[in-house]
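User: quick one, sequence for these tokens?
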């Protein structure tokens, strides 16, 4: 064996040791489980205390508490249900004359990481518009909520009689500009 080949092998030995140590780490990282993949926004949300206002009119609303269990913001953008033509996220907002009016939340309802948002009469809520028929007290309504990343989650809420809040629709809202107790 020549001294030149001996020197070359000695020079590559530290490199070979580094490759041998790094290879298992690289393989483990590349073959990580699906549990390591980021969760969808819908996977990060729970909905409790849910209910829907019984209604004989064209519109009603769903309420409850939405909790974001992740450390990143999620956005509720709308949804679907068999009982209504449209499902939108709504808020109560001040008008130019000092009153409050109901309107769709521009860009969706954002919920910060680790935060909970109450959906309640007179505040943020899920609006069901273009009802396909009356919703009586005691009936259940299934709603699928859509999130900013396109994911969805479904929940069931029971309808309750409720008189209150007396929100006023913003001009051009929904199918009419009439007042509602939404």
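Assistant:
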């Amino acid at each position: 064996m020549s001294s030149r080949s001996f020197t070359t092998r000695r020079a590559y030995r530290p490199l070979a040791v580094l490759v041998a140590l790094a290879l298992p780490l690289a393989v483990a990282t590349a073959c990580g489980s699906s549990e390591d993949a980021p969760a969808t926004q819908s996977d990060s949300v729970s909905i409790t205390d849910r209910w829907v206002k019984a209604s004989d009119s064209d519109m009603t609303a769903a309420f409850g508490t939405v909790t974001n269990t992740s450390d990143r913001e999620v956005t509720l953008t709308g949804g679907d249900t068999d009982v209504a033509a449209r499902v939108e996220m709504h808020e109560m907002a001040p008008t130019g004359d000092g009153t409050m009016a109901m309107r769709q939340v521009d860009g969706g309802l954002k919920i910060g990481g680790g935060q909970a948002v109450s959906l309640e009469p007179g505040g943020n809520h899920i609006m069901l518009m273009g009802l396909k028929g009356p919703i009586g007290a005691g009936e259940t309504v299934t709603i699928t909520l859509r999130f900013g990343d396109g994911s969805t989650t479904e929940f069931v809420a029971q309808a309750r009689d409720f008189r209150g809040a007396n929100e006023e629709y913003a001009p051009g809202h929904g199918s009419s500009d009439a007042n509602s107790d939404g």
